[in-house]
Amino acid sequence: MSELKVSAIKEGTVIDHIPAGKGLKVIEILNLNTLNGGTVLLAMNVHSKKLGRKDIVKVEGKYLSEEEVNKIALIAPTATVNIIRDYKVAEKFNVEVPERIRGILRCANPNCISNHEYVVPKFYVISKEPLKVRCHYCERTMEEEEILANL
Amino acid sequence: MQGWKGRDVISIRDFSKDDIEYVLSTAERLEKELKEKGFLEYAKGKILATLFFEPSTRTRLSFESAMHRLGGSVIGFAEASTSSVKKGESLRDTIKTVEQYSDVIVIRHPKEGAARLAAEVAEIPVINAGDGSNQHPTQTLLDLYTIKREFGKIDGLKIGLLGDLKYGRTVHSLSEALSHYDVELYLISPALLRMPRHIVEELKEKGVKVHETSDLESVIGELDVLYVTRIQKERFPDEQEYLKVKGSYVIDLEILKKVKETLKIMHPLPRVDEIHPSVDSTKYAIYFRQVFSGIPVRMALLALTLGVIE
Question: Which of A120, A126, A134, A137 has the most B C-beta neighbours within 10 Å, making it the best mutation to test the interface with B?
Fold first, then answer.
């Protein structure tokens, strides 16, 4: 059933197939919740053949780059991105876990200097499947569960 | 191999095998020169700042001694309570200040990653002398230097790491460094304190033959090197468990009856009671020679990062 839940956008980006419940976090990570940003539409718990339930985020008047969108790969690895021009899908891509992560994740190690000083946290992705990252500062590795808890 | 002048020494992970070998051969060269001349002047006019936010006897004194032996001078503090950290100054600001006074910084800090941050902030080279439970690369390099000095090589040796392999940063960095060589590793620890899985996997991936056991007696006869570390009481949920484990890993004259004639026993020190003092005078004990290795290795690192030798 392809009933239109929210209106189609003319120009902008649609992030589809976000795991249900993660839509708000996606908006937060992509910094879309600022006053000077464009209109943002969020649909939650939408029926999905692939995922059962999913969230969808539509951003009006803004084309997100692959690099920008990859920031959400940690919480929404299933997400697909559609760039919309004149109501049509002009470009489509999947998100991909980047090699390095800057700023969006906090280190789970309470004794890591990045949790005590003015520092932008940085991580190296050492494995994408299963997801595993290493803190640039304390060198501790974090696995999926810890990563999700510290986004 | 990266150029050495201005380079930071933060983690043994940043070192290739060539880097390690270069430090070891430079240390050897400086040790010889020092022996011949009595003192050196490579670092004349240079100032080392030792920032010890956490106390340490050996590491600080050996860095300071190394700098003096190179003809340089030293400033610094031995504990955070005597610095403006006590007034709430950030590490960033402390480093920014100290780099105006010195040519190279050695830092020990209770927080993991502190040395990496210091290196990012400072324009001058920073050497990590221990960041919390993370890294202590100069200890690892002096351990390798000691092994090489004793055996003339590292390849082909059977090396046992004994004690707290779970939390001990020394054994983590040492095993990482040893993975560059063709060695067999015996990881000997109580089940509770086994080497973290990701390190064991990394070692195996790099082709190191790894044996894990909790029974020291069954493997001690195989070893060329036994690297002993302290087991800390607070790692155990109950005291009885601790006492049981502690007793089984004491190196004394009795257990030495089972070893190879050429076995060498190492320890990063301080030791508590894991090696009986009666072992000190045997031909197996090299832990005080290991302490000496700190001087040439740290001289090499200081001279290389300062760019006063190549």
Answer: A137
d(CA B24, CA B22): 5
B109 touches chain A (CB under 8 A): yes
Q: Say if A82 is an interface residue toward chain B (CB within 8 Å).
A: no
B27 and B35 Cβ atoms separated by less than 8 Å:
no
CB contact, 8 Å: B198 with chain A? yes
> Cβ of B134 and A117 within 8 Å?
no
The residue of chain B nearest to residue A135, with distances taken between CA atoms, is B113
Residue with tokens 């800390």: B232
Contact list in B for residue A141 (CB cut-off 8 A) is 198
Could you report the per-residue pLDDT of A90-123, keeping only the tens digit for each? 999 999 999 999 988 999 999 999 999 999 999 9
* Dihedral sign, Cα of residue A34, residue A39, residue A44, residue A49: negative
Cβ contact, residue pair B112, A118, below 8 Å: no
Interchain contact, B92 vs A112, CB within 8 Å? no
With a CB cutoff of 8 Å and minimum separation 6, the contacts of B271 are B228, B230, B287
Mean pLDDT, residues B43-64 = 95
Please, what is the average pLDDT of chain B?
94
Provide the pLDDT confidence category of residue A4 given band limits of 50, 70 and 90.
Answer: low
The Cα of A117 is separated from the nearest Cα of chain B by a number of Å equal to: 7
Interval A20-66: pLDDT, tens:
999 999 998 888 988 777 899 999 999 998 889 999 999 998 898 88
Q: State whether residue B216 is helix, strand or coil.
A: helix
* Contact yes or no for A23/A57 (Cβ under 8 A): yes
CA A126 to chain B, closest CA, distance in angstroms equals 11
* Cβ contact B302:B73 at 8 Å: no
pLDDT at B239 over 90: no
Query: Is residue B138 a contact partner of residue B127, using CB atoms and an 8 Å limit?
Result: yes
Among the listed ranges A44-58, B109-123, B273-287, which one has the minimum average pLDDT value?
A44-58
H/E stretch holding B19 reads helix B17-37
Q: Shortest CB distance from A118 goes to which of B90, B131, B135?
A: B90
3-state secondary structure (DSSP) of residue B150: helix
For B182, phi and psi rounded to 5 degrees? Answer: -90, 80
